[in-house]
Amino acid sequence: MSVRRIQPSDVDSVVRLVHALAEYEKAPQECHLTSEQLHASLFGAAPAVFGHVAEVDGEVVGYCLWFLSYSTWRGTHGIYMEDLYVDPARRGSGLGKALLVELARECVSKGYQRLEWSVLKWNTPAIDFYKSVGAFPMDEWEMHRLTDAALTDFAAKG
């Protein structure tokens, strides 16, 4: 078992796992990620997305994808973890925790002061795991999102 930075040769495996995550989160129809898109995001001219993989016996069985955030109140960057996923057959083996620890180490080593993410309210196994490592819900905050036609219409009409 090991955790390491994602490499170009891992992209197809990570895309497969992203689609598995979308299935788990009951929204496979919303996941359109391709290997070409992820490769460009991770390894293009100006990468803004980063990632780690967990592997067992040379097989990628988990991943986390993240990007930098910024806190005006703290005056430092942080990490926003977009995804953390471990193949269901490998859960409970410490891989998810190892991925999260790696992101915490990234924060500490670079002086970042936040590691944040979102979790679906019905995903109690994930919530319990996150609470077990000391994370807490931001109950006073509510996430909002513009996508698809609403985003396009708002951009056009203001």
TrEMBL record:
Originating species: Allokutzneria multivorans
Official protein name in the record: GNAT family N-acetyltransferase
Keyword tags: Acyltransferase, Transferase
Domain N-acetyltransferase: 1-157
PANTHER family: DIAMINE N-ACETYLTRANSFERASE (PTHR10545), GH14572P-RELATED (PTHR10545:SF29)
One Pfam family of this chain: Acetyltransf_1
Phylogenetic lineage: Bacteria, Bacillati, Actinomycetota, Actinomycetes, Pseudonocardiales
Gene3D superfamilies linked to this entry: 3.40.630.30
